[in-house]
Amino acid sequence: MIEIREVFTHVETIFHEYGPPAATPLVRGAIMAVLTNPFAGRYEPDLLPMMDALKPVGLDMARRLLAAMQVDASAIESYGKGAIVGAAGELEHGAVWHVPGGYAMRELLEGQGVPTHAIVISAKKVGAPSTRLDVPLGHVNASYVRSHFDAMEVSVPGAPASDEVVFVLAMTTGARVHARVGGLAVSQIVGKDGLR
User: Fold this and answer.
1) Which of 150, 155, 20, 171 is nearest to 81 (CA)?
2) What is the pLDDT of residues 43-85, one digit of tens each?
3) What CATH number has the domain spanning 4-188?
């Protein structure tokens, strides 16, 4: 059921956003795995076996991403996930990533002492090869932390083919550079319900 054609990793370091250099540069990373879509071209009523099969893929991707970012797990402050389904598939084929993608990052981070009570927000679409996706990002422990509302644009050149799916994980080390629009601050997080 799992056939990976390519894994594509993207890491960026942001020093400023038209203002003074940040005291600590922001590191943002995304990892994208291009897989054959076993449901392409047909309707499959039971997608749950694919979700289970993707769990080790998600955990491997999360580990690879953290290693590529060259930071400690304790530095990760936001995360997100997404999927781009090739044209012979349907949107629900990207939705199978919700559990294995989100829980992979949470398992990795919690295993290293980082609390992750907030949901891992997501985006998905059906698209042609090289389709770009804005992966939403939110704070790992409290969804209401406004400084961490962000998105990371990703794509894999030439993917997905019509019978493929691109699954995406994204993580960052902090807020938007120069975030200054108020709201719940990281220092105010209670960390009980994933919201505040």
Assistant:
1) 171
2) 999 999 999 999 999 999 999 999 999 999 999 999 999 999 9
3) 3.30.1330.110
